[in-house]
Design brief:
single chain, 55% helix, mainly alpha
């Protein structure tokens, strides 16, 4: 007799569903007909603002208990964006500052910003852990990039050459299409 496999077996939710079964979806508790019958709001901000605190709580749940590393990274970034603003982009807005006076910031309610900032250390620690230990390369890259963007700001591509030149470094010349063609290289 064949030895029983140690793998497999019944999985939760596996198999044929009974007749009349309705799958549970995130919107299962919403009366869709009633919501769709409401008139469109003139501004969406007040409607969304009413759910801001519960949205932060939902993001924290994903950071702490999420099954997918990339979802944790996105949740961490969203918490940090709400608490501290988006990561700075070096060189992009600087040219406009003399005209604007100060860098523009998106208005956020103080209580929601404070709520998001409460979880900043958790978000940073989670990003670091994901960047170091995640089995998913994509999640590791996203987390590491997020930490770099938060710590150093994002670098505008046009600024890299200008900064290198001002520091006395010379960047290698970019290859031209002729350089990339193997036949052209052989004929030279």
């Amino acid at each position: 007799m064949a030895e029983k496999s140690k793998r497999g077996g019944a999985r939760p939710g596996a198999g044929r569903k009974p007749k009349g079964h309705v799958a549970v979806a995130p919107i299962a508790g919403i009366d869709i007909a009633a919501v769709m019958a409401l008139p469109a709001p003139s501004a969406v901000e007040p409607e969304a603002r009413a759910h801001a605190k519960s949205s932060i709580e939902a993001l924290v749940k994903i950071v702490m208990h999420g099954n997918v590393e990339s979802a944790r990274v996105v949740a961490c970034n969203t918490i940090l964006d709400r608490g501290y603003g988006k990561a700075a982009t070096e060189g992009v807005i600087d040219a406009f500052l003399p005209f604007l006076g100060t860098a523009p910031t998106a208005p956020a309610q103080a209580d929601i910003r404070a709520e998001a900032r409460r979880y900043a250390n958790l978000a940073i620690s989670t990003l670091h852990r994901v960047a170091q230990t995640s089995p998913s390369e994509s999640a590791r890259v996203q987390a590491a990039r997020s930490l770099l963007d938060r710590g150093l700001g994002t670098v505008a591509p046009a600024q890299i050459a200008a900064q290198a030149a001002s520091a006395g470094h010379q960047l290698p010349a970019m290859p031209t299409p002729a350089d990339e063609d193997p036949l052209t290289r052989l004929l030279q």
